[in-house]
Every structure is written in C-alpha cells, then in structure tokens.
Amino acid sequence: MLLKLNNLILRPHQKESALVKLCEKKLRAPCAYMKILRKSLDARDKADIRWVYTVECSEKPQKKEERVFPKITKEAPEIYVAGSGPAGLFCAIRLLEYGFRPVVIERGKRVEERLADVTAFREGGALLPDSNVQFGEGGAGTFSDGKLNTQTNGGFNREVLETFVRFGAPPEVEYLGKPHIGSDNLVKVVANMRRFLQERGGEVRFSTALTDIEIKEGKLTAVYLNGMREEAKALVLAVGHSARDTFEALYARGIPMEQKEFAVGVRIEHLQSAIGKAQYGSGYAALPPADYKLVSHAGDRAAFTFCMCPGGVVVPAASEEGGVVVNGMSDYARDGKNANSALVVQVKKEDFLSEHPLAGISFQRKIERAAFVSAGKNYRAPVQLVGDFLSGKESYYFGEVTPTYARETAFVPLRAVLPKVICDNMASALPDMGAKLSGFAAYEAVLTGVESRTSSPLRILRGENMQSPAAEGLFPCGEGCGYAGGITSAAADGLRIAQALYRKYA
User: Fold this and answer.
1) What pLDDT sits at residue 63?
2) CA dist., res. 215 & res. 249, Å (int)
3) Are 100 and 123 in contact (CB under 8 A)?
4) In angstroms, rounded to a whole number, what is the distance separating the alpha carbons of residues 166 and 163?
5) What pLDDT is attached to residue 151?
6) What average pLDDT score do residues 267-287 get?
7) C-alpha separations of 264 from 12, 143, 257 in Å
8) Cα 464–88–487 angle (5° rounding)?
9) pLDDT band, very low/low/confident/very high, at 506 (cuts 50, 70, 90)
10) Where are the alpha helices (DSSP H) in 375-486?
11) Which band of pLDDT confidence, cut at 50, 70 and 90, is reported for residue 154?
C-alpha cells in the first residue's frame, strides 16, 4: 500500500532520516520506500521555525518508470526551434519523444563558451552582442538564481521539475516549496540537455541567428539563418525577450504583434545577514539563506520585488552596445555577502507614447542608454543609496552595503535615469515595503540601475492552434513572445507548443 502523509514536522536541527521513523509509525511496518513530495519552511513564529513535509511511503519498494524515446533518423519530420532557452529546449526534447527531428538554432554560443564570454564582460572586457547574459545556450535564465517556483498551476509544472532533475539539477528541486537550481548548476544542466538532443538524433546549431522568414499564401515556407535560406514548414519561435532585431524582422513580414505591459526599476542590495535576521530572527544562521517577496500599492501603480537572489550578485546584462542593463544571479549555495532583488514598477502602454507594437522596445532602450551615459559609459552602472534617493540627495559614499556589480559603479541620482512615474512609485513603495520587512528601506541599502528586461515588451499573437494567424507553421512560444514569466512557465509553454505540433503533423 502506498501511503501519503501530510504535515510531517521536523525542527531545523533534525535530519531528514527522521522522516523514515515517522513513516514507519503510520505504516506499522518497516519503510522500504519513501519519497518527499513537498518541503517548505514555516517561519511565521520565529521562536518555533519548522520544516513541513508531505511524503509518500510504502513497506514495499517502488519501481521508477523511465521515459522512452524512439530512435530519430534524418528522415523524421523536421521542426526548427529558434532559441535554446527553457522554452526551446523543453520543446525540442518533447519533439524527440514524439518522433520529430528538432533543429535547434541558437544565435549565441554553447553554454561553456558563453560562460567565458559573460565572465570576461563582467571583468571589464568587450560586450559581445550575441554572447552575453541575454543570448546564448540556456537563455537569459542561465545567469539568474534558477528559480523554478511559478504562480501558474499548469499541468506541466511537475514534469518540468522532474526533467530538470533528470538532467542534473539537485533532487530537492522536485519537492522544495521554493525550488532553485543556481547558475552554477544551470550551466551543467543545459549542457546535459543539449548532449541528450544530439545523441538521439536532434540537431543544435550555434552562432546561427534567425534573420528572416518566408511566407507564401499564409504558410511558412522557409527560414533565413544568418541570411541563408532553408526550406521549413514549421518554426517554434522561442527567441527570448531581448531578441529585438528578430521582432523587428517579423514585424516587417506582417506577423501580428501587440504591445505588452511590463515593469522597470532597479536592483536593491542589502546584507544577506540583515535579511536573515529580519525573516528568521537570531537563529537565521542555522537556516537556508532567507528570501523575500514584497508588493506595494502605496503609489498609484503597483511596485514589487522580482527575481530575489539570496547571497547573490548584481550582474551586467546588456545585449546592445551603449546601454546599461542589470540583473541578479545566485549560485546554488547562495553564500555571497549580499542579497539582491529587482525593485520594479509597472509600466503601462500609455508610457510608450506610441501605439506602435515595438514602442516598448524604444522605451527600454531610452532608459538603458540614459543609464549608460549618466554613469560615464564603459558599462558602469548608476547607483544611489536608498536614503539619498528618498530624500532627493546625491550619494557620495557606501556604508555597510557595497555593490556587487563588477564593472564599476558611479553615483548618479536615479531620477536622472528613470522616468518620473517610476521613481515616484518606487519612493512610495520603499517605506511601505520597509514596514513589511524590517530594514528593507535602510538608508545604506544600495540601488543599482537599470532593471529593464523583466519580461517581453510585446506579445506575438497566436490562435487556439498555437500558430500565428498570419503564418501557418509559425508557433510563437515562451517568455519572449509574451506567453511565460520565468523558467518554469517558459519550459511548460515549450511542452505545450510541442503538443500542438504533434497534433498538427503526426
């Protein structure tokens, strides 16, 4: 008999092996099988912090079912997949399972080479437009915290977690209440996924950009890769939220798209120890690095924290010359001195001052270039202390929090970089968030600009058949096309598109 047990409690000092004894009490027999289904930290009472588990157990061993993939030959139906982020990779792997031959095209480099390029840029080297935090194997999420929690309850979420573990993510990703892989592990997982695709008959082409498409009589007939034409009947468009030149080329071809609201702001940094004390009390050191998620409606627009990176760093994330973009990143251990997260404010379509579908891109570029110029160019980032931002003063020194952004910083009043409506709402939100999380609005916390790539500024339209209404065989997919908001939801959308391809072509 397989038994499911809810609300099993362990204190932070107890080892998980103690769960077996709890199972045996319920089974009234030796436990031969136990699997953790969910694990979350209950820190509502700082004097009684506890881990809460849901497990399944049995007195008999359980067999694990393995997914079966057919042998793929060159004669199998060929599907182009543009982009090797989570949407593209998960779609391609599922296509293999369906018996298709995916051809993954990636404008950037394989993840091992990309890691070297990102590191070089972080340390002061040149920006490579096709190999950076935004572009390359693994997508933008590779250089993040690798968070896998999502606000959606789609049917593919469990499979996404299990697949990441199958390709080398830590096993607890499957059951933690707030799972994360970490950038160091993501590099390995992505490489394993690519090797799997190649070993089973799929194709992966690097330094290969989708530069155009061909449409005849409402159907996709060809793709242009680095300017060279190749016949194609199906293309999964999983290019990511920063593929601005691709969006422009598709717009020129008459592919329907629309503006989409997103958010912009800054990265805010605190000492990780301060966040730990605020969340868990004096015993924080015995617990995992603390995180937070805050929302404020104190202003006339919603402000919120996003992509919180415990023990992480703020990284240079530009993909175009002459613009400064920042993002946050954590390794799996989350053992850095600082915590950081995006502190962003909702951007509305009216802010674009244009009804053009690509106007959101122009809005992003404007603030990224303002950040670049205001900080003295060379990809320095503009920074300001929270206290000075709130009081309208210039900053001249760092206190106990020093920025982790590696390419140098410059003290710049952030109101000279970000639109007034964004700054006004950040100023309203900071004290409100500080009332919810002690120390969040501390004077010496550091604001680093600009966080402008929170999500895609547009949506490429698709119908119920998951295809563009203007081009049969073109399947908009993932975060870049406006259908996801993070690693898990993007991967799930890739699986959803693969399912639509199977229904159409199998």
Assistant:
1) 86
2) 13
3) no
4) 5
5) 61
6) 96
7) 37, 19, 21
8) 90
9) confident
10) 386-391, 420-436
11) low
Report the alpha-carbon angle 416-420-425, nearest 5: 120
Three-state secondary-structure class, residue 313: strand
Residue of 398, 380, 299 lying closest to 344 (CA atoms):
299
Q: What would the two tokens of residue 69 be? A: 């993939």
Q: What is the pTM of this model?
A: 0.95
- By the 8 A CB rule, do 313 and 123 touch? no
Nearest by Cα to 364 from 424, 449, 460, 486: 449
Two structure tokens written together for 478: 């993932």
Question: Per residue in 396-411, pLDDT tens?
Answer: 999 999 999 999 999 9
Radius of gyration of the chain (CA): 24
Residue 431, pLDDT > 80, answer: yes
**Beta carbons of 263 and 346 less than 8 angstroms apart:** yes
**What is the SS3 assignment for 27-56?**
HCCCCCEEEEEEEEEECCCCCCCEEEEEEE
Strand pairing class (235-237; 313-316): unpaired
DSSP letter at 458 equals E
**Per-residue pLDDT tens for 64-123?**
877 777 777 777 889 999 999 999 999 999 999 999 999 999 999 999 999 999 999 999
CB atoms near residue 464 (< 10 Å): 6
118 near 133, Cβ under 8 Å?
yes
Q: Are 493 and 481 within 8 A, CB to CB?
A: no
446-451 and 262-271 beta bridge pairing:
antiparallel
